[in-house]
TrEMBL record:
Organism domain of life: Bacteria
Pfam families: Acetyltransf_1
Protein name per its UniProtKB record: GNAT family N-acetyltransferase
Organism: Flavobacterium erciyesense
Lineage: Bacteria, Pseudomonadati, Bacteroidota, Flavobacteriia, Flavobacteriales
Leader sequence residues: none
CDD domains, sorted: NAT_SF
Residue stretches making up the N-acetyltransferase domain: 6-171
SUPFAM superfamilies attached to this UniProt entry: Acyl-CoA N-acyltransferases (Nat) (SSF55729)
């Protein structure tokens, strides 16, 4: 029996090409699913490069292979200041953006795994709130938020489109 060794760490510029492939595949999946999310040229290689250079990009490794990606930003998302609704808390928070799992790794529960790693990361930073948003038609992510105990808080706007905003306060 082989054991799986997961690691969650900051992405490096050397990871860029493989992460971009993961994101491109995720963009195509959103399109195939009929979702409008990520169909407007975002995210793109420049966004990813900025994530990495700013220290926002994180990878999930399985036995040293990149199987997932996300961007984590501490206490900063201007769109979240104008929420139509109300956040659960006003404390420090981690913002989650651009969650994507490698095409050949789907169905293994890795989206849940990456979300668990994000919670662990927040706790390591002594941050007890995680905020995120997704399109109204990104049903896999909406289901994941519900399954993991995130609360719907209202709507935020990105590039002119309303998105559902969620928060989870960690105990």
């Amino acid at each position: 029996m082989t054991s799986t060794n997961y690691q969650f760490k900051k992405a490096t510029i050397a990871d860029h090409a493989y992460i971009w492939k993961i994101l491109k595949d995720a963009i195509e999946r959103r399109k195939t699913d009929g979702s409008a999310q990520w169909q407007d040229g975002y995210p793109n290689p420049t966004v990813l490069e900025n994530d990495i250079n700013e220290g926002y990009g994180f990878v999930l490794l399985e036995n040293n292979n990149i199987v997932g990606y996300c961007a984590l930003i501490l206490n900063h998302e201007p769109a979240y200041e104008a929420i139509e609704g109300k956040w659960l808390s006003d404390q420090d928070f981690v913002v989650i953006h651009r969650v994507a799992i490698a095409q050949d790794q789907l169905g293994k529960g890795l989206a849940k795994k990456i979300m668990t790693e994000i919670e662990n990361y927040a706790l390591q930073q002594n941050i007890f709130s995680i905020k995120a948003d997704t399109n109204f038609d990104n049903f896999p992510m909406l289901h994941l938020f519900e399954k993991l105990g995130y609360s719907y808080c209202g709507e935020v706007y990105f590039r002119g489109s309303a998105r559902k905003a969620f928060e989870k306060v960690l105990k």
